[in-house]
Amino acid sequence: IPLSIATFSIIGEKQARSLEPVLAAPIRTSELLAGKAIAALVPGVLAGWVTFAIFVVLAALVYGPALFGVVTDPSWLAGVFLLGPAVGLSSVVAGVIVSARVNDPRVAQQVGGVVIVPVIGLVLLQATGTLLVGPVGYLLVSAGVLAVSVIGLRIGVRLFDREAILTRWR
Fold first, then answer.
1. How wide is the angle at C-alpha 161 spanned by C-alphas 156 and 165, nearest 5°?
2. What is the pTM of this model?
3. C-beta atoms surrounding 136 within 10 Å
4. How confident is the model at residue 97, as a pLDDT?
């Protein structure tokens, strides 16, 4: 959800010619991109958290306190409330960076989706029992992904050429 919103918020505005007034406004590029990233991230994160809450309630009702204890374990909570938003932010940042350079939202979504591949690998390793990451591990991975996202946002600000977008995307 966040990646789709992020890519369409830039490319869709380019195609609809509604990005030009925003770019001409007295706002810094970092503020513009951070605002678009946050606006794209929040609905997906909230949807994930609400879904998790429903899952926890249903697990408690259907399977009882034993499964409730498992799904409210600190590892699950760190994964859902820390790693999930961090990965969402990194995919949004990748989508924003690519969206500044391309004019097809599908290309930006595909490149942004590549960001998620290492995390999917981590999840598969965890699910098979090959690698078990506890709450501290999730915290460290979340911090690393968040740091990469902040660096990516700074790169995106440098790559986002307002003048080129105003003149070339006609």
1. 120
2. 0.81
3. 11
4. 80
